[in-house]
Amino acid sequence: MPVQELVRKYGMSQASFYAWRKKYSGLTASELRHVKQVDEENRRLKKPVADLSLDQQILQEVLAKNSKAGTQRYHSIRPSDATLRARIRELCAARPRFGCRRIKVLLQRQGVRVGMFRFRRVYAEEGMGLRTRRKKKRPSRTRIPLLAADQPGQHWCMDFMHDQLGDGQRFRTFNVLDVFSRQCLAVVAQPSFRSKDVTTVLDRLIEEHGAPHRITCDNGTEFTANHFDAWAYHRGVFTDFIAPGKPVRNGFMESSPRGTPPRTSTACCTFR
Fold first, then answer.
1. Where in the sequence is the domain holding 198, given as residue range(s)?
2. Global pTM?
3. From edge to edge, which strands make up the β-sheet containing 269-271?
4. Which of 97, 210, 219, 258 pairs with 165 at a CA distance of 20 to 30 A?
5. What torsion, rounded to 10 degrees, do the Cα atoms 190, 195, 201, 203 define?
6. How many CB atoms lie within 10 A of CB 124?
7. How many angstroms separate the Cα of 229 from the Cα of each of 91, 106, 215?
8. Is residue 252 situated within a structural domain?
9. Model confidence over 67-118: pLDDT tens digits?
């Protein structure tokens, strides 16, 4: 069939006819169907790609506008922890064996109000946590010069002594000494002592002689218990703990002979 008749029959131009013939000449019917399917698939995929390109273009335009207008950043308004850190370091240096909770109690007594989460965060950042296992080496302490008392009743010292009866029964004596006058205020003997027993004896002595300004003692469990710490705070008495392994820091009590300290009256000796 002539080309002019084909062009007139299918309503196309001669240029389109020659272009199609150049593109599809030599193809079978199955190959033409495959090419048609590929063209349909391409046409179907072009729309999502165009939509994605449009979205990307819009996003780039928005980011460009924001970069020109300037960026906004968050600035923390949390108060500084410098003062709190300094107080925690001071208390931990004064009380090396106090843990997180007891240090927080001391802060509250000084009027510092801080939440537990903030306190634990600062406490951990300062590295003040105590090891669970007991260290062989004793924690270092700052040497504090011993303060001399000016008058009786200002400074007391106390400690325990051990002995046994003739039948082998062991007992302990709780001794309280006035540092200025060297007078033994109390010698109480019992098979065992708890922190509450110590505070009971001290309450009786305070009623008789008045409360001292400070009390020197070692790091025994009776004196480092929470009960004794709370008692000293409410009584307004400063507890002066000696350094571990340094009994000379409580020399007035340690230098007394075994048994009853010097200048002991029979009225202050009791056995329970």
1. 155-271
2. 0.52
3. 238-241, 214-217, 155-164, 170-178, 184-190, 269-271
4. 219
5. -170
6. 11
7. 14, 10, 12
8. yes
9. 555 567 777 787 788 889 999 999 988 888 888 889 999 999 998 888 889 9
